[in-house]
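Why does residue order matter? Because the sequence determines the fold. Keep that principle in mind as you read this record.
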Amino acid sequence: MYRIPFTRVPGQLVPAVPAPAAAERLALRGQLEASQWWPAEVLAQLQQVQLGALCEHVWEQVPWYRDRLAEAGWAPGRPMTTDCYRRLPILRREEAMAAGEALRARTLPEGHGEVSAGSTSGSTGRSLRYWVSELARRIGSAFHLHIYCLAGWDFTRDLASILVDKQGVAAAPEGRTYPDWGPCLADLYPSGRHHFLAAMTDIDDQLDWLQRRRPAYLQTYPSNLAALLERAAARGLPLDFLQGISTLGEQVPEALRERVRAHFGWPLFDVYSASEVGVMAIQCPSHEHYHVQTANVLLEVLDEQGRPCGPGQTGEVVVTCLNNFAAPLLRYAIGDFAEVGAGCDCGRGQPVLQRIRGRARNMLRRPDGVTAWPSFGTAALHRAAPIRQFQVVQTAIDRIELRLVCDRPLPADTQRELVAILQASLGYPFQVEIRRCDRIERSAGGKYEDFLSLL
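Structure:
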């Protein structure tokens, strides 16, 4: 795909001379593109260098961390070795919330720019306030450009996003349309329009909106995409104008990946990120696993004893953002679990996450002692009943509540079939209560969980 940037010099079109901010973003993206192919050991060494610079800054400007760093055996002027780093205590969300502004740097190095504040979506019921430097935001913008390039999307086509509407500007029925894809592209390349609709919009209204806008590409949450595909099939509405779908913010069920492949003939593209640390991993363009973005984060997957997990093992995700000097989060437990993957045959040297498992509250616990990430037989449930939306909630060690949004009441024999499907999928004869709902609401952050444990 041929892309020529905008030029700031009249008459100088090829090679173009972009404006300074655009040129910086293009240069950063070029480094992201090149470095992903470097050997794993080189990437690890570069992370150690950047981590050392971050820790030197933290020692001087964030006194809250000094005791932790000293107890781990580190002091300014010393290398931050892997062993030393792993001795640092894990920073839990509750601890970060309690620390608050004590995590903010007193001053920033020259060139890091102004600091802005944000807060997490609060889908856990615990919103974390965080601070980001202007430089970290610019690097984040380069990552957005990198993601679009890895997805192989044509910037000149229209993009649609159905996501949380934090500013309240994209309400149904029309949402909001921007002239370009946003800050990562506006001053760099010609792009199509960006159509934006609030994720809280009713699914039928979302479908009608997509039919009117007919974008080439769609960004949304996995659960919202699943609901869109289910409802489109029920209404007989084609989505053949879509040429690519990117998801974020939630675990991607294998059933959804299979459905996208079967319906469109190409795979969906997922990104693993969090507002407080940025992009952590991006799906491989050649596979369905993820490459850790070592240029932004140092990411560990740890077992219950705090030891690094190996390929095929699932553990807790612990992360340090290497580029945000405004309020560093060192060895921060993001709240997710992931499965480690083996090295990828695509040639990238970045570590691999086989899959993102979700949060601890997404784990099923059975009376026989088994703890697992649940599968629900989603396709079988939809075949058995006219389900528009469902959620499985574990209310006790032996009890499951199946919340359903249906167009009509379900007869007793259909309910018994749903119970049997759920029990077989979960591998245990749970007592199942079916509760019909008008709607299953998303969190304030626009996210939705198809399984939730209240234990």
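The domain at 364-453 is CATH 3.30.300.30 (GMP Synthetase; Chain A, domain 3).
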